[in-house]
Structures are given as C-alpha cells and as structure tokens.
Amino acid sequence: MLHKKFLLVFIGLLSLNACKEAKNDNAAAPREMTVKAMRVTPQDIPLSFEYPARAQGSKEVQVRARVGGILLKRNYIEGSRVKAGDVLFEIDPAQYQVALEKAKAQLAQNKAQLLSAQQDWARISQLFKQRVVSEKSKDDSKATLDAAQAAVQMAQAQVDEAQLNLDYTKVTAPVSGITSLETQSEGSLISATGNDSLLTNITQIDPIYVIFSASESEIYSLTNMSEKGQIKTPYNGGEIKAKLKYSSGDTYSHEGDINFINPSIDETTGTIKLRAVFPNPEGRLKPGQFVRLVMEGLIRMNALVVPQEAVMQGATGPFVYTLNEQGLVETKNIQTGLSTSDGGWIVDAGLNSGDIVITSGLLKIRNGMPVKAEIATEEVASSAGETL
Length: 388
Prior knowledge:
The chain is an alpha+beta fold. The protein has helices at about 1-30, 95-130, 135-165, 215-225, and strands at about 35-40, 45-65, 70-75, 80, 85-90, 170, 175-180, 190, 200-215, 230, 240-245, 255-260, 270-280, 290-305, 310-315, 315-325, 330-335, 335-340, 345-350, 355-360, 370-375, 385.
C-alpha cells in the first residue's frame, strides 16, 4: 500500500515537471512579428517627367536697312505685334527716285540707239547681198548692233537696281512677331552696312519654343526601354506630348510637341538639350519666361512597382525584403529604374511577378526570420516620372 502511494506521488511530480518544462518552452519560443507587405504584379505605368524650362522665340530676326539715308518715319509702336510685310520704317527716297529716273532715261537713250543700229544692219545686210558694200562694212554694222543690244540690257539692269533701292527705302517686317525698341530714331542718318543699319528686332512668338535639358542617364534609360520594347506611345500617333506649368502652378492651356533632341551631350552638366514647340496665339508665353515643362505620352509596360520606403541600400546596392513560401524573410537585390509620381520605384531587375515584398518593420527584420505578413491588395502606383 505504501509502495502504491509512493508511485502515485512520483507520477504527479513527473507530470508537474513536464508542465513546467512545456511552459518554459512556450515562453522561450519567439513570437512571429507582423509586417505589412504587398504582392507585386505587372502594371502599365504612364511616364511623366518634369523639368525647369525657358521660353524662346521660334524666330528672332534683325531688321536692317538695305540702303542708306535719313530715317524719316517709324510706322509701328515699339513692343507691338506686326505682320510680315508691314512697313516699319521709311527712309528718305528722294535720291533713289532721282537715280531711278536717270536710269530710265539712259534706258530710253540706249533703246533709241538700238533701233538705229537695227535699221543700219538691215540696210547693210541687204546691200552686202547685192555686193554694194564690203564685208568689213557688214561686220562693223553687226558689231554696232550687238553693242547697242548689250547697252540696252545694261541700262535695264540699272533701272531694276534703282527701282530695288527705291523699294528698300520702305523697310518691311520679314516675319510676324513682336518688335523691340528701335535702335535708330527718326531723323538719324543710317547706312546700309555695320551697326548703323540695325533698326529693330522682331521675335516670332507664335509658335514659341521651350528649351529644357534632361540628364544623360534618363535619356539612356528611355532609349534602352524603347529598344527592349518596354515602352509605347499609344496616343497622338506616337508623339511625345508636353505641357507647361507657370510658376504659380497653373497649367498653360495649349499642348506642345517635342520636336528636337540635341545629338551631343553638354560636357559640363552631363545633360542633353531638348526643344518643345507650343502654339501661342494669345501671346501668353514671353521669350525668356521660366516655366516647368511636363513631358508625357509614354507608357512603361508590365512594370513591377514597389514603394520607395521598401527599398533598402546595402553594400551590393539596393535590395528589398521578400517573404518566401515558408514564411521566412528573404533578401533580394534589385535594379531600380524610374521613380513614380506617387512614391514608388519601377524595378527593372531582381523581382518577379507575384513576389511578396515587405513594406514595414524593415529595421527589425533579418534574412531567414519568420514573420506574419498583412498583404495589401491595392496597386502601389499609377504614374511614373522624374521631377528635377
């Protein structure tokens, strides 16, 4: 009987110790950390790029006098808009009118001499056939006729030149645009050469150019994606569209087109100059005005996007923490591309569709660590680009 009681007590002690050991084991086991994560899926991301830019006239023309004389009149208001062909200045035409009349008189005289030479030639050639005059007389008559014809041509050229010089006394606008201040005031003696010939400048502002610069790496990235078939231009017949923002943040009402990319790189800044052209019928944009240019019209196809806060920097470059099938943290090195406008990175290499990327608690987790993930279902980004 005593032996049976002792056996029951011993069994009870063993059970108590087992419970204590199980409790201690449970206390020592680490609790799984809860993190937020997202499953990356391919998306078509509209690309958008924003740059500082400056407006520039599409044509900037110097208006110069082509004949000298006294500047009699200015027919426009400085800073106003003029049309091509408008008479801007008038130079004293008196001397050129006289030169034209002299040239016309000389032409009339030479024509009379030509008529006389033609009549002499007709008589001499007839007499030569009748063997009344010598061959020398015939040759002299023909030479006189040829000289008279040449004299008429020369006189006609002098008349044309005199008429041209007279026409040049009315200085017209070569292009439509906005005029600058006059450089010569009325009453001044101007010449057809040197600095004294400059009268004003005209800047064509409709259309107007907008000049901006993009980084070499950015242009290379776009070119590389294009060669790989990763971007497309589904709108506007494949054109790259551009928009403008004023310093106030308001958007310019007309869209433009990128119509020029400089083939060379600026060695000082490492950038490439580009040009956009915009309609400017109301003259809202002025040459020299600073604006922000937004370049649109490209779509990055099948892009994998992760939030910027999910990307860490390591000794071998950027990486993200992912969750593998066993629920353990796994490190993946990635290659990032363009940034998105709402806080993400396009991943060019290192991730696959369906990978689960951890987006929170990144400083507390380590490779191989078990975690519990709350996986978001919403897409991370809808548009991508650079803001410089």
